[in-house]
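Hi team, as promised in this morning's meeting, here are the two structures we talked about. I've kept the exact order from the run log so nobody has to guess. The first one is mostly here for context; it's the second one we should focus on when we meet again. Sequence first, then the predicted C-alpha cells.
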Amino acid sequence: MNEEIKSLQEHALSFFERWQKRGVEKASEIAAALKAFGDREQAKLDWLREQIEMRVIGLSWNDVKTPWSSSSDEAVGTVAQLSEHLKEEILVREVAQRKAGELPSKEGTPEESCPAPLLQRKTFKTLGTPTVQADRLCQAVKAEPSSEEKLEAAKQRRTELEERGELDWVSDRQPYATGQGPVPDENLIGKKLEVRWRYYNKHTGEPIYIWCEGNVVQVADGEKDKKTARCRKLLPAGALRIQWPADAEFDEDESFVWTILKPCAFNKDIHLGWRFAASELKHMRKNTSQKARK
C-alpha cells in the first residue's frame, strides 16, 4: 500500500477525535487559547498547527492545508498567519457546513462520523493513444477502495498502532487541550485520573515513566489539610488525595497519596503529567450521549 495512504489511515481517526473533543468553533476561542499561552510562541504554533491538522487530516479537508514556513515569505507559518487562516478559512467553512447539516457530528463515535481519509492524486498528460490492453491496465491502477473500505482500513491501522504504543487514544480523547487542563478542585472528587509517575528499573536503575490510574477521594481546601498529621505546613488548595490500587509488579500496597497536579501539565508526557483515565472518558461519553438523546 502507498506509504502516503498508510500515513493518512494511521492518523485520520486520531485527528478526527481531537477535533471532536478540542476543535475550536469560534474566533473568541482562538483568542482565548492563544492568550493562555502568554509569551510561549512555540506553544502557540503547536496549538494552531494541531487545530489545522484536525481539519486537514481528521476531516480530510486537503484544500485548507497550509505550509508551516516559507523561505521567501517570513510571514508564512507565523502565529498571526496561522490564526488568521484558522479563523477566516477553516472556521468560516465549518460554520457554513454546520448550518447546511454537512459537518460531521461531534457527538457520535469517531468510527461512525469520521470521513474516509482522502488522498490527493497527481495527474499526468497522456502521450499518444493507449492500446486496449494499456487502457484496461490504466483503469485497474486507477481503481481505489470505496469510502467504507478506506475507513475500515483506517480503523484497523489505528488499532495496530495503539497496540504498539505508537498512537494513544486516551490522549486524543481528553476534553481539554494539552497544557490547559482544569484547575484541580472538588469537581474532581470521584473522578479516575491517570498520573505519569517516574519509576526506576530494578536491574538497571534507568527511569521508567508509567501512566498510573487512581481515584480522587479528597481535595485540599488550603485551610486545614496537611500531607501527614505531623506536618506543620498546610497543603495548597487544590492538592488531590488520590487512592492508588496495589501494584504487585512494583511491590506496592494500596495507598492514599496527596499530589499536586498543575493545569499546565495536563495530558503531557512528563513526570506528574495527568489526564482523565480511559474508564472516566467512557463514562463522560456515556453521559454526553444520554444528554444528547433527551
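And here is the second protein, the one for discussion:
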Amino acid sequence: MRRATVQACRTARRAPVWNVSVKRPSPLSFTHNQLRSLRSYSGSKRSYFPAAIQSSMHRRNLSLAVISTVVASGAWYAYQGDTVKSAASQFRSFASSALNSAYAEDPAEPARRALLVSNDQFYTAALSGDQPLAKTTDDSDRGVLEMLTPEQATQKLRKNEESYLVNRGKGVVRYDIVQVPSNSPIEDDHAEKIVEIPASVAAVKDGEPSSDWMFWAVFDGHSGWTTSAKLRNVLISYVARELNTTYKAAAADTSLLVPSSEAVDAAIKQGFVRLDNDIVNESVKEVFKAKSRRVAAELLAPALSGSCALLSFYDSQSKDVKVAVAGDSRAVLGRRGPSGKWTATALSEDQTGGTPSEMKRIREEHPGEPYATKNGRILGQLEPSRSFGDAAYKWTREIQDQIKGKFFGRTPHPLLKTPPYVTAEPIITTTKVDPSKGDFIVMATDGLWEMLSNEEVVGLVGQWIEQQQSAAVSTGTSKTWLQSWFGFDSQKQLPVESTADASGEGQRRPIRQQQYDISGAASRFVVEDKNAATHLVRNAMGGKDKDMVCALLTLPSPYSRRYRDDVTVEVIFFGQGPDSRTVEVNQEATAPEEPVKSKL
C-alpha cells in the first residue's frame, strides 16, 4: 500500500489519460459497483447520473492521486469541480452537460461537482447546494467529502494565525505565528513570552532602567498531545528561573556583571533537563506514592507521550539569540547580503537516530548495542534522538513492568537494555543579530521542513517582505516595522543566495517534494497572505497550485498524515522600532476570535 501511495504521488504530474464517454450512460447500463456507489443518492429528491471514467492508476493529476490512494485504504472522497475542469477538455464538456441535466429542475441552485473514486474508477456526480460536506453513501458507512474551494482552503490556513507588533525599542519589531493541524487534535504547540528584566537582575546600559528577555518556542508532539501541552505551560518558566539565578549571580560579581555565554548555555540546559526529570522521573514517584489509577492517568500522560522542543532566547542587551533544540524542529536565520539578496543560515541541527553526530553519541553511550539506532530510529522505532517525555526509552525495564502491572502502560521494548536512550538536553547555538539590517528567524516543526528547504523558506520570507513594502508604497501607508528593510526587485526568482549544499549532513532534505514530484522552480510560489508564517505554509502546500493546496487541506485525519504533518511556524522580525513599552495584536494578520457559542 505504501509503495502504491508513493508511486501515485510521484506520477501525479504526468498528463492524465482519460477514456470518457461523450454521452451520459443510461442508468440501466450501470455495473453493480456503480449502483452501490450511488445508493445513498437514490433516496434524495434529485437524481444523480454518474459516468464511469476509465483511467490508469498512475496517470492523473496530484489531487486525484492523493484521493485515490486514500480510497485504497477504505475511504471515499469527492472532488470539487474547479480541479476536475482542468483535467481534459473532453471531461470538461461532459461534466458540464451532466451538471446541466442534474440541475434542470432548479437552475438557480449553485452547482457543485464531486468525483467519487472506487476500485480504480471515477464517477462524476452533482451535489445540491444544501447538501452537507460529508454524508453516508452506502451500508459500509463510507463517506463522500466535497473538495474545499480555494476560499475555504484559505480560511483553514488562516484559522490559527496570530501576529504581534512589538513596540519596545529593544530590537524586535514583530513576530507571526500559524498552526495548521493534520492530527486531530493537533500534537504541535507553541509558547511566547517577553520578560522585562530590572537592572538588579541583569546589568543594563547607562540610562536604561531595564532590558528585555524574549522567548519563542515551538513543540512537536508525538504519540499524543499531552507532552507538548505541558511544555507550552511551563518550559519557558523553567528556563527563565535558571537564567534569573545565573544573571543575578553575575550582576553581584563586580568582575563579571554579565554571565559568560557558556554560563547562559548551562542555565538553559539545566531548565530543559530539570523539566524532563520532573515529567519522567518525579511523576513516577508521585504515582507510586498515591497508588491511584486516576493520579497515574493525570501525571504519567506527559511522560508516556513525547515532544521535541525548539526554544529561542533573545537578550536585548547583548543582541544574542540562543537557539536550543531537543529533537528535529529547526530554526533558520535570514540575513540580507551585500547583493541585496538574503542568505539562509541554519541555527540548529536535526537530531534523529539517522543524524551522524547523534548516531555516534548514542553508540558511544550504549556500547555493544548495535540496535540502539536502527534504520534512523532509536531502537528502530522513535525518530527524534532528543525529546521530552518518551519514557518508554528512559525508564528501566523494572519501572515499566511495575507501571504496567499496577496501573497501565506498554510492554517494554524487547531491545531495551541500558536506558535512557533519549535525552532532553538541548544543543545550543549562539548568533548575534543585527536589528539595523532587518534580520529574521524562522522557527518551525518538521512539518514545514518536510516540504521546503532552508533557502526556500528564507527566500519566501524575503519575497513576502518585498511585497509588503510594495503594498505600503502603493497605498501611501507607513509601517514602522518595515523601516529596517530595503527593496530588491525579484520577479522570477526568490531573493535568496543559493548554496552548493543547502542542508548539510545534519539536516534532512524536504522529502515531500520528492513524494509529490514537485520541481524546485520558484515560479510555483505566491504571495497572498498578510501573515508571514501563513505565507510559508501556503507555499509549502502548493503555492500557486491551488489544486494541491485544496487537496492537502481537504484530507481529514488520520489519512492526511500520509501526506502532511502538523505544522507550526513562527517568524521573528528584528529591526529598529518605536519604544512605547507595548506589544499589540496585529489585526490584519491575526485570525478573528470565534464568537462564543451559547450553551443550552
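Starting points for discussion:
Confidence is low (pLDDT under 50) at residues 1-109, 113-124, 132-142, 485-492.
The first helix runs from residue 2 to 10.
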